[in-house]
Structures are given as C-alpha cells and as structure tokens.
Amino acid sequence: ELQHRRSAAKATGDEPDPRFKLSAPWAQALRNVALHPEKAQQDVLYKDDLVVLIRDAFPKAKHHALVVARDPMLRSIADLRKEHLPLLAHMKEVALRWVQEERSKDPMTVAFKLGFHSVPSMAQLHMHAVSQDFNSPALKNKKHWNSFTTRFFLPLHNVESELASRGHITIMAHAEQEQLEGQELRCHGCSKSMTLMPELKKHIATCDAVKRLPGI
DNA sequence: GTTCTAGAAC
DNA sequence: GTTCTAGAAC
C-alpha cells in the first residue's frame, strides 16, 4: 500500500508539499503536553505553572527526560530573551532534582548533561536531561548521535551565558546544521572515529573515557 | 520526531 | 545472504 502511494506520487511528478512538516501532528506533541498536560498520553513526572517534566518517548540513553516550558510563546530557543533567565534557572532546578532521583536508583550511572538542540524537530521549548551512556535501542542513526555529541547540542550553561551577553540565541546556519548532522561518528569520550553505528555502540559501552566524562 | 524499506555495503 | 544506512512519508 505504502509502496503503491510512493510510486503514484513519483509517476505523476508531484512535488513535496513544504507545509506538510509544519502541520505534521507529531511535531506538536510536546506543545500539546505543555499546554494540556492533563491530556498527555505519557506519565507527567512533575508539573507546575512554568514547566512539565516527562521522560523522552524514545530515550536515547538509560536516563533521558525533557523539561518542557509551558509558555505558549516559547516555541524554541529562538524565542528566548534575557527575561527568560529565571525560567531557565527553574528548568535547571527541576532537571537536577530528577537527575538526583535517577542517580539514587542507579548509582553507577555515568554523567548527565543538560541542554538544547540547536534546531529541534518538535515545537515548544524543551531542555534535554540525558545520561552520557547513550545506551538505548532508540539511538539508531548518525543524526541521533550527532544531535547529542556535537555543537548541535547546546549545553544549558552556554545558552544562559549567550542570553546574558547578547540577549538572544544565535541560531546556526542551515548549512552548518546539516554538516554537523552528517559528520563522521566519533566517540564523545575518547574522540575515536568510527564508520558504523553498531561499531560505535559497542565501543561506547566499554570506553573508559566515557565513564570519566565530566557532567552532573 | 519515527517507521518503513530499497539498495548499498559488508 | 545479511547488515546497515538513508530518504520518503501528502
């Protein structure tokens, strides 16, 4: 059936509809959680007037949660201004509390990092809290890997300091975004370069440098 | 963001 | 023959 539809589109020479992504329901899932947490399909771990804390639906590490801002005006980091620094401090506090809970359940876990994707795929400002093991079946491809281990991942502290100094976040150029997403696979601990995902996943499971990574 | 799968890479 | 990546999805 799918194959049939693909062939049909090709046969008629139909061009892709650029509005499809913008209106796609999946891109609004986090916004829906933020605006209507009581209707959320997944468990809400914590909620107040400013944020909602949930586990990532497709965790890319043993421990992976999202702190989602509830302000409808905050669709991404591009909407952040100096006035939002207190909100970021609150998001940090909520994330750190969750990290401590996870750590108490799993004392041997490696470091955690807090931060944002430069160009997120989903609407609504959300901060990742993710353990640096990246041991998860949902971590499947180069884009996944590079979105957490290259400059595509903006640590919370960097976002805070750029807001404080410039008053807004400079969004990276599309060409740079694509370059980072497509770049070679490299261990985030020892910088060893690898060709294939299975090779990388096997390596990071045993790399000593990964175990000693700095972080929370 | 994920799923699916054709065809490349092994 | 099997594993793996990468692009379409309306």
Q: Give the percentage of residues in beta strands.
A: 15-25%
Helix content: 25-40%
* Low-pLDDT regions: 5-17
User: Termini, distance in Å?
Assistant: 48 Å
Account of the 3D structure:
The chain has 216 residues and is of the alpha+beta class. It contains 9 helices and 8 strands. The strands form 2 sheets. A 6-stranded antiparallel sheet has the order 1-2-3-5-4-6, with helices on both faces. Strand 1 and strand 2 form a beta hairpin. The longest helix has 21 residues, at 85-105. It is globular. The protein starts with a helix and ends in a 5-residue tail after the last helix. Mean pLDDT is 92; it is low at 5-17. It is found in: Nucleus. Residues 31-139 form the HIT domain. This is HIT domain-containing protein. It comes from Volvox africanus.
